[in-house]
Amino acid sequence: MARKPSGRPAAALLFKVALAATAAFTLSACTEITQLITRAEPKPAPAPKPEVAAQPVAAEPEPIPQPQEKKPKPGKLYEWSGDGRKVSRIVINTDEQKARFYDGPEQIGWTTIASGVSKHPTPVGEFEVLEKVENKRSNLYGKIYGKGGKVIRTDAKTGRDSVPSGARFEGAKMPYFMRVTYDGIGLHAGPIPRPGRPASHGCIRMPSKMAPVLFEHVGVGTKVTIVGKGPDYGNYVKQQRALAAQQAKVRNTKRAASPTATAAAGTTSSPRAEAPATSSSSESPRREIASAAPASAAI
């Protein structure tokens, strides 16, 4: 008698198929959910790189022209061929103890100088004429005269040497002064006791006959290059302009912070008096000065 087939194997097979289908569906659903989550949360954008301010490129100094004068005769201290022409640049070489004058690229004169001695060296760098004073006296170096008018100290310095009671200090003459720094350095007429060797307190001395000629042909703003041995002032012109701009900014900020005080000052201030006419006399020396000059300057 044949046995009837049992239904258990078929049921087990159906159960396995159902279980596999359920697992596959579960895996598929998890994958889709993961993708949805991933799409729902985008990656944050990278942080922007900080901007770095471009560093200003320092202007290259103009090349120094080659000397164009012929070898001078022994004893000749200067030469000038620039009548009617303005000097656009002065080049001073303290190693050679010479200054050369140019109108553009053309040399129109030269002179022997006496720069600062080792204790008071003349600075090197890029400068410009800041001020012109025809009859100038030093407020730093000079002589001390006693009661009877006799010189009691020939190399006196303000702040270092006391002036006795009844005596007086008289600043050294610095005629045809052309200032290049606000700490007292400039070109002017003065003694050159040993041509070719330094002799001053830092200024650039010129022969008495050459100084007035240069004074007449130089204006405020004329470029001055000093090379040789000495403290390096770098681009002094650029530094002074930056300082003046900074000071102007501070003043403008203060004015903006107190508009009431500024308005009050404007309504109560008296009219500004006109500047007196200049003169070439010693009592009222002829003077030209840069607009950004400080209220006071050494020497």
Describe the structure.
This protein is α+β, with helices and mostly antiparallel strands. Helices cover 24% and strands 24% of the residues. The protein has 4 helices and 15 strands. It has helices at 8-40, 211-217, 236-257, 259-268; strands spanning 78-80, 89-93, 98-103, 106-112, 124-128, 131-133, 137-145, 151-157, 168-173, 177-179, 186-189, 204-206, 223-227, 232-235, 287-289. The chain has a 7-stranded mixed beta sheet with strand order 1-4-3-2-13-5-14. A 5-stranded mixed beta sheet has the order 12-11-10-6-15, with helices on one face. The longest helix has 33 residues, at 8-40. It is globular, with a radius of gyration of 41 Å. The termini are far apart. Mean pLDDT is 80; it is low at 52-58 and 268-284.
